[in-house]
């Protein structure tokens, strides 16, 4: 694992120092690792589209109980969102989980251990020597993950269409959310073999967009109406089932459906390209 940030400009050094301080204040952190495009040096700042690569951070803590404390990390993410800097994709795991993944050769964590930049360590833990998966193992996992997730996503989309036809609109919204979530999950698993334990579509879209530029335009959120529609879809996972005040019209679903269908088409294409490259 690297320790130098010399490939990043001074502004980003300052931003990362701020993030480290905030996360250490949030909870008992053992390690903080920068990974992804900012660690590799291929981050994107596109003034024409406004797209800017996230900071990808892995926080390692002592126990699973700490890692799963939604209050602690939810508060930390809320504080981070208030900062004037690029968005942050935060994943939190306990030391035992990460080391188990490394021992198994799980290549998402192996890549982090190989390419990541250590921003902070308490000195209490070290990561176990890792073994990279073989090319055949990586290809096999990508194929299996894609088949499972993408097939499931298509089934949810078919159910969405059926529920719209029956006039069951809130149920249709939930099914459409699940289709979008699983399309994105298929891509994340093919590209990284890892998907965070979240139903937050906004976070999943950001993660996918960081892996392939063609995902930046799916499920648009730039214009006010696009953002409103996206929020309806994003909230459908919980509110469409449990909130009696949740409302969505056939017209709104009619606008969202083609966007999720396009998402599926883009995911299918880029995943097939990735799988072909792995072969």
Q: Can you tag this structure with a few keywords?
A:
single chain, 279 residues, alpha+beta, Beta Polymerase, domain 2, Four Helix Bundle (Hemerythrin (Met), subunit A), 2 domains
Helix-strand layout with pairing:
Blueprint: H1 10-26, E1 29-35, H2 37-40, E2 55-61, H3 64-67, H4 70-81, E3 88-94, H5 95-103, H6 107-115, E4 117-121, H7 135-166, H8 169-192, H9 201-211, H10 224-242, H11 250-278
Parallel strand pairs: 2-3
Antiparallel strand pairs: 1-2, 1-4
Helix pairs in contact: 1-4, 7-8, 7-11, 8-9, 8-10, 8-11
Folded structure, characterized:
α7 packs antiparallel against α8 and α8 packs across α10. It contains eleven helices and four strands. Helices cover 61% and strands 9% of the residues. The radius of gyration is 19 Å and the shape is globular. With 279 residues, the protein is α+β, with helices and mostly antiparallel strands. A four-stranded mixed sheet has the order 3-2-1-4, sandwiched between helices. The chain folds into two domains: 112 residues, 2-Layer Sandwich (Beta Polymerase, domain 2), CATH 3.30.460.10; 144 residues, Nucleotidyltransferases  domain 2 (Four Helix Bundle (Hemerythrin (Met), subunit A)), CATH 1.20.120.
């Amino acid at each position: 694992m690297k320790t130098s940030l010399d490939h990043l400009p001074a502004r980003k050094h300052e931003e990362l120092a701020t993030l480290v301080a905030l996360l250490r204040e949030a909870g008992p952190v053992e390690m903080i690792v920068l990974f992804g495009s900012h660690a590799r040096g291929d981050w994107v700042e596109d003034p024409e589209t406004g797209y800017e690569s996230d900071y990808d951070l892995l926080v390692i803590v002592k126990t699973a109980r700490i890692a799963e404390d939604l209050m602690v990390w939810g508060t930390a993410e809320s504080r981070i969102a208030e900062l004037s800097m690029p968005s942050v994709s935060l994943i939190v795991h306990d030391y035992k989980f990460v080391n188990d993944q490394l021992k198994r050769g799980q290549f998402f964590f192996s890549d982090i251990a190989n390419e990541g930049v250590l921003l902070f360590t308490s000195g209490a833990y070290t990561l176990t020597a890792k073994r990279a998966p073989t090319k055949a193992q990586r290809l096999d996992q990508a194929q299996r993950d894609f088949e499972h997730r993408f097939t499931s996503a298509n089934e949810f989309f078919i159910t969405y269409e059926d529920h719209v036809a029956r006039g069951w609109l809130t149920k249709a919204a939930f099914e459409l959310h699940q289709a979008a979530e699983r399309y994105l999950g298929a891509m994340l698993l093919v590209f990284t073999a890892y998907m965070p334990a979240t139903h937050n579509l906004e976070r999943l879209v950001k993660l996918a967009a960081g892996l392939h530029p063609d995902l930046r335009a799916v499920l648009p959120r730039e214009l006010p109406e696009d953002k409103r529609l996206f929020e309806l879809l994003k909230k459908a996972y919980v509110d469409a089932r449990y909130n009696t005040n949740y409302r969505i019209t056939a017209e709104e679903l009619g606008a969202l459906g083609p966007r999720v269908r396009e998402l599926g088409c883009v995911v299918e294409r880029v995943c097939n390209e990735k799988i072909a490259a792995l072969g």
